[in-house]
Structures are given as structure tokens and as C-alpha cells.
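Work package 3, deliverable 3.1, input record:
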Amino acid sequence: MSKQAEGVDMRLILLAIVGLMFGGCAMTRQELRPSDTGRFSEEERHLIAADDALVPLPLVQNTSETNTALLRREALPVDPSEPALPLLLARMRATMEQEQGVGIAAPQVGVARRVIWVQRLDIQPDMPFQACLNPEFLSFSDELETDWEGCLSVTGGFGEVSRPLSVTVRCQALDGTWREERISGRTARIFQHEVDHLDGILFTDRMPQPVALTPKEEYRAMRERMREEASRTEPQTNDDETSPSLD
Ligand code: NI
């Protein structure tokens, strides 16, 4: 081997070592980011613990640039053992019930954490509410469906959104266990709408631009007409969060 070749080898080895050092540093910085601990900040704990479990948290709506910026933040993971999490869940649920929603995401109450509630319209007859921590989609159906949606945080009205008909979603429970489930139809739509909130996405982002929303009163009148025409076997729910056409 020539001296020159040895020199090249040494430079390559040095570059590799420097690369590893920088790579290592980047990884360490990432590991130390507060986001990755999943624990609430003092500010988050203060907001959540400002009142008791039955008191709704104030809803963040797109009525100002400041509020919209809150809705646009990417939510961070949550540690299921975080002590303030049961209180956050209770207060989010109180907010959702007060607003007659079928789902809610923590960013809608000003907490940028990956926490959602979804009403399981697919589990009859009770249609229970399910809390889902750190939700992830493992797959989406190729088949799409277009249906009406509204949002507790979007004041302008309702619009039609096309989304995958079915999803496989992975949720973490308060005990830390993970569960996967294939979900279709309106409940799959609610999951997608709520997980979008965790990524700072509103349903209006998924509509043709410029967005033309149907005002609430107009939508409700249309929905009432459709309800009269619809089959009486269709389950009835009342919601503003993601609104199926037959509600
Ligand atoms: Ni929403």
C-alpha cells in the first residue's frame, strides 16, 4: 500500500470518527429533549390542575392568531404514568361533553400532548368514549370515503372531507399497555380527525382550497332534512367534532 493511499485511509477514518462523534451528540441531544420524557411541564401541570375533574378545560378555538398557533403546534408524546394525566383526561372529557362532541384532542384545550378521546360509534349500543394515548396509525385502507366534519375548535362551520374508510390504530392505555385495532367508518374518521389535531392539522386543511364551509345553522337544517329521509335504523348522535352526514 502506498503512502498516499494510507493518507486517504487515515482521512477517511478521521472523517468517520468525527461523523460518529457528531451523530452521537445529535442523538444525545434528542434523547435529552423534554418531549421524549413524556412528562408534563410545570406550565402544563398548572393548567390541568387549576380546577377539579368535573370542570371543563377552556376550549381553544381558531378565533385569533394566538389560538390558531396553539392548534398548529405538534403535540409531544405523553408518559402514561404521568400523575396529572387522569385529571387531564377527565377535564378533556368534561369539555367534550359540554360541547357535545364525539371526540377531542389535548391541543384543543391548550395541552400539546398526544392524548385523544374518541366516541366509539361502532360499539353498540353504548357507544362508549375511549381514551387513547400516543395514537399511531399502522395502516390505512386504499378506499376513501367523503363525509361531513365539524370541529369544536373551528368556528366557521362544517365541510366535506375525504379520508381512508378504514384504519389500523395503535393506542396506549393508562397502564402502559398497547392495543391495536382495525376500525372502519365514522369511528375511523373520528380517530383520523383527532390524530390530525396532534400534528397541528385541522379538517379544513384536507378540504379543497380555498375552503368554503357550510355555516352551522345551514348545516343543521340540512342534517335535519337528511335525518327525516334517512333510515330509522341509523344510530343517532349529536356532535360538532366530526359530524357524520346522518347525525
Ligand atoms: Ni376537531
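DSSP finds six helices and seven strands in the chain.
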